[in-house]
Amino acid sequence: MTRKISLGLAFICMFLFTLPATGTAEVVDRIVAIVNDDIITLIELNKAILPYVQKVESAGYSEEKKAKILFKLRSDMLSRMVDRKLTDQEVGKLRLTVTDKEVDGAIERLKQAQMMTQEDLIKALEQDGIDFAEYREKIRQEILRPKLINYSVKSKVIVTDGDISDYYEAHAVDYAGVKEYHLFNILVTQEHLLDTLRTRLADGDDFKALAREFSEAPNAGDGGDLGVFRMETLSDQLKAVIAGLEQGEHTDVIPTDQGFQIFFLESLLAPQGQTLDQVKDEISKKLYDEIVEEKFGSWLDSLRENSYIKTML
User: Fold this and answer.
1) What pLDDT is recorded for position 14?
2) Alpha-carbon dihedral sign for residues 213, 216, 217, 218
3) Where in the chain are all domains bearing CATH 3.10.50.40?
4) What's the confidence (pLDDT) of residue 6?
5) Residue 16, pLDDT score
6) What is the per-residue pLDDT across 15-30, written as a single tens digit (0 to 9) for each?
7) d(CA 31, CA 43)
8) Taking a C-beta distance cutoff of 8 angstroms, is the pair 135, 126 a contact?
9) What kind and span of H or E run contains 308?
10) Distance (Å, whole) CA 76 – CA 60
11) What is the third-level CATH fold of 178-269?
């Protein structure tokens, strides 16, 4: 959307230059973006990216890579500053306000969270070159923006019971509970023992007793107890054979890098899945957050499309 810049903005632009006695214009600052009737200056942009620039400068990058990183950094930051201007303008249009009490409350919560006194806070602000009045104004703006999003986006988001039910059914596997396998093994490196193991297992000998007698693995003394596993944690080779076992069954001999192994499924633990009622609030919040994020992006796109924006990096 294209529209003329107001006379007030043009007047501001004039004073980004000084005119020395020689009559030659000397650039003190310059405009890097115009957002409707507001501007963003180079000084403002440089101040916003300064902490990131210092990190890039100290990272040891080559000059070429550093230049690319800094250009993208400036471009991304300017884009965020433009969005900030747009939302600030909407706040003004809607006449949203924040009371001193709200600001005081936010500052008190911050001090409590950081275990700071008022003197500690003022001292920390002074070290960053910020006075307390300026800090209060920043806090005020940080409270205003969520109010704007609540008014323009969140108030229009509705998650129905049908939405929640559809999501639950589409993600049934996620709420079904995860099976866990309690496994034992016998490990031998001497191939001539395999027929003996097969025969005794077929005759019904206790797997754990055979593990103590024949296994060369460190867990032999525990009857070959390997512990409890979820299927996704097993190797592809084991997944194929373990998945086909019933509780109390064992695999055939499996050649592995460690030697010849036989695995026994002691128990299959299948925790009860979560019902729709149990996860209803969790799904509702997830869907709400996803819709808010999507609608906020669309709302911000609409602001951009209906505004005059020009960037001049």
Assistant:
1) 39
2) positive
3) 178-269
4) 46
5) 47
6) 444 444 444 445 568 9
7) 9
8) no
9) none
10) 22
11) Chitinase A; domain 3 (3.10.50)
Residue 71 structure tokens: 């250009």
Compute the distance between CA of residue 260 and CA of residue 186 in angstroms, rounded to an integer.
8
What are the start-end ranges of the H helices in 15-131? 42-57, 63-94, 100-114, 118-127
Rounded-to-integer distance, Cα 256 and Cα 99, Å: 70
Q: Are 158 and 292 in contact (CB under 8 A)?
A: no
Helices (H), 153-206: 161-170, 194-202
pLDDT tens per residue, range 169-227: 998 878 877 788 999 999 999 999 999 999 999 999 999 999 999 999 999 999 999 99
- Concatenating the DSSP letter of every residue in 235-262 gives -HHHHHHHTTPPTT-B---EE-SSSEEE
Q: What's the rounded Cα separation, in Å, for the pair 25 and 14?
A: 11
SS3 state of residue 186: strand
Sign of the torsion angle spanned by Cα atoms 62, 65, 70, 71: positive
Task: Give the distance from CA 18 to its chain's centroid.
Answer: 46
Query: Whats the size of the chain, residue-wise?
Result: 313
Instruction: Give the integer Cα–Cα distance in Å for 82 and 293.
Output: 19
Q: What is the DSSP string of 117-155?
A: -HHHHHHHHHHTT--HHHHHHHHHHHHHHHHHHHHHTGG
Q: Are 138 and 48 in contact (CB under 8 A)?
A: no
Cβ contacts of 75 within 8 Å, gap of 6 or more: 313
Rounded to the nearest 10 degrees, what angle do helices 132-152 and 276-305 cross at? 110
- List all residues 6 or more positions away from 264 whose beta carbon is below 8 Å from its beta carbon: 183, 184, 185, 186, 207, 224, 249, 250, 251
